[in-house]
Amino acid sequence: MKYLYVGGMAEVDGEALESIRGRVAAEFALSPREIRLPAPGFAYDPIRGQYASTELLENLVRRCPPDAFKLLAVTECDLFIPVLTFVYGHAQLGGRVALVSLARLRQEFYGLPPNREVFVERALKEALHETGHTFGLVHCADRNCAMALSTNVRQIDSKRAEFCAACAARLPRPARPRE
Ligand SMILES: [Zn+2]
Ligand SMILES: [Zn+2]
After folding, report:
1. Do 145 and 159 contact (CB within 8 A), yes or no?
2. Ligand nearest to the CA of 89
3. 143 Cα–ligand 2 center, Å
4. Which has the closest alpha carbon to 130: 156, 169, 106?
5. What's the distance, CA 61 to chain centroid?
6. Ligand 1 centroid to 89 CA: how many Å?
7. pLDDT in tens, 28-78
8. CA 9, CA 27: separation in Å to the nearest integer?
9. Residues classed as catalytic
10. 43 alpha carbon to ligand 2 midpoint, in Å?
11. What is the rounded distance in angstroms from the CA atom of residue 111 to the CA atom of residue 81?
12. N or C: where does the chain have the smaller number of CB atoms within 10 Å of the terminal CB?
């Protein structure tokens, strides 16, 4: 049995977490499992007021359970890598661990009225994207594909919560682009 462990780093939105666990596991034909992960305080950068995603990823590698095929961590903390203002997530290309931040996925972050559906959908897309990297998928030129690079929520909203045929074909399971 190949397990996908999905857990929150500290408290995270429960609905988004459940939705990600079920949907990402199904997409990659893995068995979902819950895991408790440490609060990400150790990776906090007080100058930037954000969390260092590389440091978090390294910690996740060490915490990855022996029977985990993949480990996906979800956090409410805003992530960065030194050369970028922020990142929505981070993953080991072709590795075992991935990380997704919910911090910038809510409409409220942009001064708009809350919309749960939009928020959860964005979280799913970014979770699929980062997990896709762990399967060796790189950024895709198809803007509808979950592997398209998103640097703002407009780009997240314009892609779909699924992989294009080319990306799906590179996954170790039958290609399953819907429609
Ligand atoms: Zn990416
Ligand atoms: Zn693609």
Report:
1. yes
2. 1
3. 8
4. 156
5. 15
6. 8
7. 999 999 999 999 999 999 999 999 999 999 999 999 999 999 999 999 999
8. 22
9. 130
10. 31
11. 25
12. C
Q: Could you tell me the distance, in angstroms and rounded to a whole number, from the CA of residue 77 to the centre of ligand 1?
A: 18
Which ligand gives the minimal distance to the CA of 132?
1
Ligand with smallest separation from the Cα of 167: 2
Alpha carbon of 93 to ligand 1 centroid (Å): 9
Read off the pLDDT of residues 137-153 as tens digits, 9 standing for 90 and up: 999 999 999 999 999 99
CA–CA separation, 40 vs 76, rounded Å?
10
Give the span between the Cα atoms of 55 and 23, in whole angstroms: 27
Q: In order of start, what are the domains of the chain with their CATH numbers? A: 3-138 (3.40.390.10)
**Ranges of H-type helices in 28-115:** 53-63
Contact between 136 and 46 under an 8 Å Cβ cutoff? The reply is no
Contact 56, 89 (CB under 8 A): no
